[in-house]
Backbone:
């Protein structure tokens, strides 16, 4: 993936020292930190003492609707006007949205400058931080414009999770569950046992270990297939329906977190797993029970089906307009490149609707 | 350079057959051709019979001022609305501006789709087509936003040069001269002998061979250093002053071609070569005589120096605001990473001004 290192991820509980050391051994001509209004308030103070006085802060706005080419252009103009050069460094301090936007901006600025990602949400620690996918949205389509390029370094520290609202923790937890479901039953069972009803009760050490395991699973898959030609598609389990739910609810003003939408997507795609493979019915039912406990079902109507299907047909995994999903053969084992037709999708949505009727 | 092949360049005199064959053996889900108003009129008819009926034409505008993020966004929206997917192909039919814009757009669409470049100007055949630099301008700065990514295939056919005005031929010729000057004295002497007073008089075969030689020089340099960490900077000979001249004249409405500006830049940087190394005075004088015959000097004034220096300080090769240029030790041999200060630049501009006084 370009000349960068895909796997330069440090798990730490002393991010200030780790960052200070990294900046000391490097020789950047200037240093920029990208924040949004939340991370400026809650996270920048945490790392402030690692930063040299000449650091330049660029502020962007939080919110999925700001993850677009206009925000990237704003960052490019800021970097230009503040005289960044090819040897400057951009530190992305924020969640997945900010790190995708900042990663894309750094990757295209003067054809690519180094960037360091410090993910501050659970979702970005276990998902967005690893894999080198940088992107912004276009025309409401998620990550339509982007590149594959890895952060020069990723620093993961649970300290940033302390101030997160529990819906943000749940959002990241859904991706961790997914990692277990597609690749590692033990990881899934551990997560299932812990649940996540109150993450403040889980010790930093236990939480840090679970994060590290989850990241390791993703890393292993991405390493095997960095450009998503094959097995990396496994990571899309739950995401074909999940992205459609996310776009659908967010565009109608009923905001939903990414992980919550993916959890609902995993319900539908587990149903299709049972329909298309030997994925056992009792596993399907137990997954549904577990997911619905943590991720309340959101109401859809029959007349929404066309809209949802329309979102799915724009999925980047598709080829020649056929909808292509990843499903489970069993817990811990995935099957990619499964073509589903409109009938399958309607059945899955019917199944989903029955759950709350 | 991602998973693409840097060196997939075909020199042909039967572009219709070559393209048809390429499309037959590939398996793209849909096919787009990017043109501007000129190539739509003059070049699209030439390749039309190689294209399947379902091809979709995207039209962009010619002109450096349209090589920007807004034009890229227009292309991304067109691709999205016309249902391009990851397995679609974009063919860029045009000069360097169009192929840079199209290459950047394809490289970021869904994190990168394949693109084929068919350069239709001499400049793009010998320069932009090889090396995998894709970019657009920002805030008047050339190629400020971009990526390194190579075309899936480049098809070079002199047939497209037939209808070009001679100033366009001269523009490409300047880059060919540069290739000779930095790397291959024989190539330079051949070009010098042929001159280019009337390119219609040069046979297709001779011209095709010279193009092939020039491309081979660039390929060799890029292969050695794809990301411009070292020797690839040699290709920037003439370009620090050249880009400044280009931005300066174009922004004041006195349009100048890229090659013409680079030729004037090579005059200044040859002067600095003589000042900073043992580059012989008689070579400097003979280069000046040759360049000024083909590339008329454009008037600048002392009060323009600050503006020109300001453009140079934004050059991407710089580090920590120091201006870094490539100079000649002798004809066919280059020296990179030469720091020049304001005094050097002023001396070079004074030398340039004396030439027409």
Residues:
């Amino acid at each position: 993936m370009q000349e960068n290192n895909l796997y330069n991820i440090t798990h730490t509980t002393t991010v200030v020292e780790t960052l200070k050391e990294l900046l000391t051994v490097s020789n950047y001509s200037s240093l920029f930190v990208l924040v949004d209004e939340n991370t400026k308030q809650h996270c920048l103070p945490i790392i402030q003492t690692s930063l040299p006085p000449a650091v330049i802060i660029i502020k962007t706005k939080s919110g999925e609707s700001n993850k677009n080419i206009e925000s990237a252009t704003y960052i490019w103009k800021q970097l230009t006007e503040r005289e960044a050069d090819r040897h400057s460094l951009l530190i992305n301090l924020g969640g997945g949205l900010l790190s995708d936007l900042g990663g894309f901006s750094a990757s295209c600025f003067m054809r690519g400058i180094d960037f360091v990602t410090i993910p501050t949400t659970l979702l970005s620690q276990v998902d967005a931080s690893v894999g080198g996918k940088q992107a912004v949205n276009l025309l409401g389509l998620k990550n339509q414009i982007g590149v594959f390029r890895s952060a020069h370094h990723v620093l993961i520290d649970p300290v940033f999770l302390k101030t997160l609202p529990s819906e943000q923790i749940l959002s990241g937890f859904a991706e961790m569950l997914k990692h277990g479901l597609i690749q590692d039953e033990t990881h899934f069972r551990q997560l299932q046992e812990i649940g996540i009803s109150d993450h403040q009760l889980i010790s930093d050490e236990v939480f840090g270990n679970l994060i590290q395991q989850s990241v390791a699973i993703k890393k292993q898959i991405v390493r095997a297939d960095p450009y998503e030609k094959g097995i990396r598609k496994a990571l899309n389990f739950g995401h074909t329906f999940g992205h459609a739910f996310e776009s659908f609810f967010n565009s109608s003003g009923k905001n939903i977190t990414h992980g919550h939408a993916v959890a609902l997507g995993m319900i539908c795609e587990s149903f299709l797993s049972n329909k298309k493979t030997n994925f056992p019915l009792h596993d399907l039912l137990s997954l549904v029970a577990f997911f619905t406990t943590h991720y309340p079902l959101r109401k859809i109507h029959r007349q929404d089906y066309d809209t949802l299907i329309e979102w799915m047909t724009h999925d980047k995994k598709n080829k020649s307009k056929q909808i292509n999903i990843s499903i489970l053969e069993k817990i811990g084992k995935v099957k990619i490149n499964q073509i589903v037709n409109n009938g399958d999708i309607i059945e899955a949505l019917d199944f989903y609707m029955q759950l709350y009727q």
